[in-house]
Amino acid sequence: MSRFVLIPGAGGAAWYWHRVVAELESRGHEAVAVELPAADEKAGLPAYTDLVLDVIGDSGAGVAVVAQSMGGFTAPMVCARRPVDVLMLVNAMVPLPGETAGAWWDATGSQEARAAAARAGGYPEEFDLATYFLEDVPPDLAATLMQNERPEAEVAFTQPCAIEQWPDVRTCVLAGTDDRFFPYEFQRRIAKERLGVDAEPVPGGHLNALSHPRELTERLVACLDRVDSA
């Protein structure tokens, strides 16, 4: 049994991970999704990091940290302060040391990649939640998500990822093959350029923990198994 600590993206809702938590627990693992105070302008990345560290506890042994989307900025800060077994990034932003989330978009060319994928896929380039986040999410879950949507405070976009280098932790990058917000080929490029690793395909769009929880869980467990057998 391993302990999975799951970090949500912008908005900070632990609920996002609830289907994956259930899948992990059904396989005998412990899973905890962290609720983040995303709307609090006095919080931001350092506060998020402290909250995740509190969940992990004094030792990261047997712990897998999983981060989605903007959670990719918090996760390396956590792993730099508490060694864990593995870090898994799911449709995540991959920061450079000292980079801010606000600067990340231009630095990576994410907007251009998103627009190019939209033209190739025949869907609107202009961002809206239905097109870019909810296209493959079951309607009942999409409705719940919209009812409980929370903003991400601007402060979190201005604070640097406070690491000197990427932490010395085995890192798996899982990229949604149908992600319209961070297109699959874009994620592959960023993973190779910034981490020197190959992104692995997983079914679904940007919110595939809601749309494809079983398949995503299988990939998380497979990443863990590879680490355990290394």
Please outline the helices and strands:
Layout: E1 3-7, H1 18-26, E2 30-33, H2 45-56, E3 63-68, H3 71-81, E4 86-90, H4 101-108, H5 110-121, H6 129-132, H7 139-147, H8 155-158, E5 170-176, H9 184-195, E6 200-202, H10 208-211, H11 213-229
Parallel strand pairs: 1-2, 1-3, 3-4, 4-5, 5-6
Characterise the protein shown here.
With 230 residues, the chain is an alpha/beta fold. 44% of the residues lie in helices and 13% in strands. A 6-stranded parallel β-sheet has the order 2-1-3-4-5-6, with helices on both faces. Helix 1 packs across helix 11. The mean pLDDT is 96.
Brief sketch in words of this structure:
The chain is an alpha/beta fold and 230 residues long. It is built from eleven helices and six strands.
* Structural shape: globular
Spatial order of strands in the largest sheet: 2-1-3-4-5-6
Mean of all residue-level pLDDT scores: 96
Rg is 16 Å
The succession of helices and strands, N to C, reads: EHEHEHEHHHHHEHEHH
- Helix proportion: 40-55%
User: Which residue ranges are poorly predicted, with pLDDT under 50 across at least 5 consecutive positions?
Assistant: none
Largest sheet: 6 strands, parallel
Total number of helices: 11
Give the DSSP E fraction (strand runs of 2 or more residues).
5-15%
Quaternary structure type = single chain
> Termini distance?
17 Å
Q: Total strand count, please?
A: 6
The structure class reads: alpha/beta
